[in-house]
């Protein structure tokens, strides 16, 4: 059976079933070590079957080194190695970015990273954009073939693409339990040509026969990181009985076609617009499901199948937020239920200076010292944020997209508030100035996405802004409680 393939970009064709190597980190938990050579050898059955694409990251234990050993031992087998760079929050330099890419190349024993996917822990610190601009420089040097992102929400994928970053993919959670990617994210991807790489598609195994008809697992029964993580997704989607409704519908479709429930879960997501591939985890050297995985390619869901599945999905509670929010907002749908095993602390996004008149936040734009103002000022429990455009250093961000510019301006406002001890939720007043009256709705909708649950007082007017590139300017006032 031939593995279906997708083209992510020039010179990069991937298997639509991507083998995920994140479980190597789980296999190395608590100081355990895997046999690198034996684990690399376990990649060969996948590659021989046409499943030649492997997804990993700098923090997936020895995954990159395992893939590098496989490449070295089997130079005649063409494999695609997709990896990620997940920097810690805080200051980052161009040299840091180069070092991260060179480290991946050394581990992968390659001259070019096929797809370097970038993860940002928060967007209120604009250094995430620096990382992408510097990665793009390395792409032009040939050290990176293509750039992707992982766990980006729609607003920030829009900002990156409209700012000229050449992104080909966004890797996000997408499954029968988690349908967030079907909405605004898919719409933007179809507009821009960015494709989705879906992970969590079988929810760590929870969307398989093993869990059908079983009582809810006891405390501690979900032991792998994947099961702990997707157990939280189950709770967010409505609990164990909600999962069972989806499992029963999936089982009926699987039996009808003579395939596994994992095949149904994968095929359903593969059929969604903008999805280039789904990532199915493998515990290399422990067990393999190559022949079963391949059956997803022969499965064709008909209208009755999709209707039965949709009926079950409509009984679920939607996973809250947009793609990637599980890593940035409560509830944190991670293995630990928080970010404690990912991030130690979040440094302030911007410089803060204490003065006799209050604390000043300086964002580093060239106009602040020239015109003699601060990005924001805190006096007592009140924070006033200056009119803020989509500017980062000397760069105009967001291109000619008013929504992208609005989101970036709000990010800078949020970063200023965080630097001074506040939050976006503390905002009580916003004022919006748009250059072109016809942009008002796009900007208003961006404001609604960010402030819809906060509901500050607001004014939006058409105004002649300073600077040819700027379509929107936003200012804010906040009161910090406590």
What proportion of the residues is helical, as a percent range?
25-40%
Distance between the first and last residues' Cα = 63 Å
Structural class: alpha/beta
Radius of gyration: 23 Å
DSSP E strands, number: 19
Largest sheet: 8 strands, parallel, barrel
Q: Count the helices. How many?
A: 16
> What is the averaged pLDDT score?
95
Give the strand line-up of the largest sheet.
3-4-5-6-7-8-9-10
Strand content: 15-25%
Overall morphology: globular
Instruction: Name the poorly predicted regions.
Output: none
Structure description:
The mean pLDDT is 95. The longest helix is centred in the middle third of the chain and has 18 residues, at 240-257. Helix 5 (94-108) crosses helix 6 (127-141), helix 7 packs parallel to helix 8 (184-192) and helix 7 (154-162) crosses helix 15 (402-419). 34% of the residues lie in helices and 21% in strands. With 482 residues, the protein is an alpha/beta fold. The chain contains 16 helices and 19 strands. The radius of gyration is 23 Å and the shape is globular. The chain has an eight-stranded parallel beta barrel with strand order 3-4-5-6-7-8-9-10, surrounded by five helices. It has a seven-stranded mixed sheet with strand order 11-12-13-14-19-17-18, covered by helices on one side. Strands 1-2 form a two-stranded antiparallel sheet.
């Amino acid at each position: 059976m031939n593995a279906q393939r997708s083209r992510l970009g020039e010179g990069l064709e991937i298997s639509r079933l991507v083998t995920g190597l994140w479980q190597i980190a789980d296999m190395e938990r608590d100081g355990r070590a895997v046999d690198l050579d034996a684990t690399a050898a376990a990649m060969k059955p996948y590659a021989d079957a046409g499943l030649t694409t492997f997804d990993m990251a700098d923090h997936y234990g020895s995954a990159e080194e395992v893939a590098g050993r496989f490449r070295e031992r089997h130079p005649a087998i063409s494999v695609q190695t997709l990896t990620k760079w997940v920097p810690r929050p805080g200051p980052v330099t161009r040299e840091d970015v180069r070092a991260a890419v060179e480290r991946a190349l050394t581990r992968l024993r390659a001259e070019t990273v096929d797809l370097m996917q970038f993860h940002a822990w928060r967007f209120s610190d604009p250094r995430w954009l620096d990382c992408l601009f510097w990665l793009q420089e390395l792409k032009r040097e040939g050290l990176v073939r293509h750039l992707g992102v992982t766990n980006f929400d729609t607003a920030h994928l829009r900002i990156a693409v409209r700012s000229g970053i050449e992104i080909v993919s966004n890797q996000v959670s997408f499954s029968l339990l988690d349908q967030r990617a079907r909405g605004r994210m898919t719409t933007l991807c179809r507009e821009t040509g960015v494709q989705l790489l879906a992970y969590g598609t079988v929810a760590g195994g929870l969307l398989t026969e093993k869990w059908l008809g079983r009582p809810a697992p006891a405390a501690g029964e979900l032991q792998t990181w994947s099961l702990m993580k997707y157990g939280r997704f189950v709770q967010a989607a409505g609990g164990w009985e909600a999962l069972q409704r989806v499992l029963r519908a999936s089982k009926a479709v699987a039996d009808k076609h003579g395939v596994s429930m994992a095949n149904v879960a994968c095929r359903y997501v593969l059929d969604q617009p903008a999805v280039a591939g789904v990532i199915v985890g493998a515990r290399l050297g422990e067990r393999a499901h190559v022949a079963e995985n391949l059956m997803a390619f022969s499965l064709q869901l008909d209208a009755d199948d999709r209707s039965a599945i949709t009926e079950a999905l409509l009984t679920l509670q939607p996973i809250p937020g947009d793609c990637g929010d599980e890593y940035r907002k409560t509830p944190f749908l991670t293995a630990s239920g928080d970010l404690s095993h990912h991030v130690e602390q979040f440094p302030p996004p911007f410089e803060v200076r204490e003065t006799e008149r209050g604390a000043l936040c300086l964002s580093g734009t060239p106009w602040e010292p020239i015109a003699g103002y601060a990005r924001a000022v805190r006096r007592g429990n009140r924070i006033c944020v200056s009119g803020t455009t989509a500017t980062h250093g000397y760069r105009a961000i967001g291109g000619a997209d008013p929504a992208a510019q609005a989101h970036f301006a709000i990010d800078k406002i949020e970063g200023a508030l965080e630097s001074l001890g506040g939050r976006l939720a503390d905002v009580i007043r916003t004022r919006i100035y748009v250059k072109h009256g016809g942009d008002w709705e796009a900007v208003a909708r961006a404001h609604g996405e960010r402030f819809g649950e906060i509901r500050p007082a607001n004014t939006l007017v058409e105004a002649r802004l300073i600077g040819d590139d700027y379509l929107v300017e936003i200012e804010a006032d906040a009161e910090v409680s406590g």
